[in-house]
C-alpha cells in the first residue's frame, strides 16, 4: 500500500523574465546607440532586481519548509505563501492529528493555488483521515471510523478531478471504497437508531484491509 503523503520538494528556482527581447523593438523606435545602451542597461538592472527578489522569496520559503520538517511551529499564509509552503504546513498539522486546522488551511488556500497543488493538499488530508479511520477500526469504534472514511473518499474524488491519472489517488480511493460502500441510506430518526443499526453497514463490507494507505 502506498505511503501516506509524498516527499516534499523544496521550492524550485525560476529564472527571471528575459527583457532582452525588447531591445530590438526599442532600437527601431530610438535609433541612437546611446539611447539603446541606456535602455539595455536599465532592462538588465530590472532583471537583476527581479532575480534577487525572487531568490530571497525562494530562500525564505525553503527555510520555512525546513523548519516545519524539523518539527517547528511555523505559520503559513494560505493566500500569499508558495504552494510548497502551504503543503509543508498541512503535513505538519496532519502529523499531529490537527485535522480541523488542516481543513481550514485548505479551505483558504484552494482559491489561490493551482488545481494540481489543490489535489496534493486534498490527497494528504484524505490519507490522514483514512489513517485515523484504521485506528478507530482496530479499536472497534466503527461509528467514529465511518465518517472519516466517507470524508476521505470525498477528498480523493476531488483530488482525482485535477489529477485523474494519478495511480496513488485511485488506489487509496479504492481502499476507502472497500471499507465503506456507497449505498443509499434510509431516513432513520436519530432517537430510534440503535447501535446494531449503526453498525449494520459493515455487514456489507467484504473485509477490513490491513495496513495503511
Describe this structure in words.
With 213 residues, this protein is mostly helical. Helices cover 61% and strands 0% of the residues. It has helices spanning 23-29, 33-69, 83-95, 99-109, 115-138, 142-162, 167-179, 195-198. α2 runs parallel beside α3 (83-95) and α6 runs antiparallel to α7.
The residue ranges in which pLDDT falls below 50 over 5 or more consecutive positions are 1-16, 196-208
Radius of gyration: 25 Å
> Tally of extended strands?
0
Shape: elongated
The CA-CA distance between the termini, in Å, is: 5 Å
Q: What is CATH's topology name?
A: Serine Threonine Protein Phosphatase 5, Tetratricopeptide repeat
What is the highest CATH level, the class? Answer: Mainly Alpha
Strand content bin: under 5%
How would a textbook summarize the main sheet? none
- The number of helical runs is 8
Overall tally of domains: 1
The SSE string, one letter per element, is HHHHHHHH
**Percent in helix:** 55-70%
Helical/strand content category: mainly alpha
Report the mean per-residue pLDDT as an integer. Answer: 75
Can you name the CATH architecture? Answer: Alpha Horseshoe
Give a short overview:
By secondary structure, the chain is mostly helical. The chain has 8 helices and no strands.
What characteristics describe this protein?
mainly alpha, 213 residues, 0% strand, elongated, disordered N terminus
Amino acid at each position: 500500500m502506498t505511503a501516506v503523503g509524498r516527499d516534499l520538494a523544496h521550492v524550485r528556482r525560476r529564472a527571471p523574465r528575459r527583457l532582452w527581447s525588447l531591445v530590438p523593438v526599442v532600437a527601431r523606435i530610438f535609433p541612437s546607440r546611446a539611447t539603446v545602451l541606456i535602455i539595455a542597461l536599465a532592462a538588465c538592472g530590472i532583471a537583476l532586481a527581479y532575480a534577487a527578489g525572487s531568490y530571497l522569496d525562494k530562500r525564505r520559503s525553503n527555510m520555512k519548509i525546513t523548519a516545519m520538517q524539523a518539527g517547528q511551529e511555523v505559520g503559513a499564509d494560505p493566500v500569499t505563501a508558495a504552494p510548497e509552503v502551504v503543503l509543508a504546513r498541512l503535513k505538519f498539522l496532519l502529523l499531529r492529528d490537527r485535522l480541523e486546522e488542516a481543513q481550514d488551511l485548505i479551505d483558504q488556500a484552494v482559491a489561490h493555488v493551482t488545481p494540481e497543488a489543490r489535489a496534493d493538499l486534498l490527497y494528504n488530508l484524505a490519507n490522514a483521515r483514512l489513517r485515523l479511520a484504521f485506528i478507530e477500526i482496530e479499536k472497534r469504534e466503527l461509528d467514529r471510523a465511518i465518517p472519516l472514511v466517507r470524508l476521505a473518499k470525498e477528498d480523493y474524488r476531488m483530488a482525482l478531478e485535477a489529477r485523474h491519472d494519478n495511480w496513488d489517488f485511485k488506489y487509496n480511493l479504492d481502499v476507502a471504497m472497500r471499507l465503506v460502500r456507497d449505498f443509499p441510506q434510509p431516513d432513520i430518526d436519530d432517537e430510534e437508531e440503535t447501535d446494531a443499526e449503526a453498525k449494520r453497514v459493515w455487514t456489507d463490507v467484504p473485509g477490513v484491509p490491513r495496513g495503511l494507505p
